[in-house]
Design brief:
Keywords: Membrane, Transmembrane, Transmembrane helix. Helices cover 83% and strands 0% of the residues. It contains 6 helices and no strands.
């Protein structure tokens, strides 16, 4: 059927080469799609998830290195705090929230250095009071 369609197209009119090529590509895409539909749904879903993860990683890599490094350091600090001592759950949660707030602030805007410093001081003060 696909061969006949292509043959009829070339007979009926003087179709430009680009049109024939695009039609061939669409035909191939349709054929591949019909093959893919034989694959189990779970396999397709897992492939989609992997693709999305790769896409998200690609987006994340656009983030400035300094922001990624600072977030990593803050995450490690939180992890070390939870390992070193028997910190109460509320303290760990408040520290995590403050860490996330600082990370979001650094992503959302180019906050002036003085604002970042004052926010950091407030964060440290709040964390110290919680402990």
């Amino acid at each position: 059927m696909l061969t006949l369609q292509r043959f009829v197209l070339s007979l009926i009119s003087k179709v430009e080469t680009s049109v024939v090529l695009s039609f061939t590509m669409l035909t191939l895409q349709c054929f591949v799609l019909s093959l893919i539909s034989k694959v189990e749904t779970s396999v397709v879903l897992s492939f989609t998830m992997v693709t999305l993860q790769w896409f998200v990683l690609n987006l994340i890599s656009k983030v400035e290195t300094s922001v990624v490094l600072s977030f990593t350091m803050l995450t490690l600090q939180c992890f070390v705090l939870s390992l070193i001592s028997k910190v109460e759950t509320s303290v760990v949660l408040s520290f995590t929230i403050l860490t996330l707030q600082r990370f979001v602030l650094s992503l959302i805007s180019k906050v002036e250095t003085s604002v970042v410093l004052s926010f950091t001081m407030l964060t440290l003060g709040y964390f110290t009071v919680s402990c």
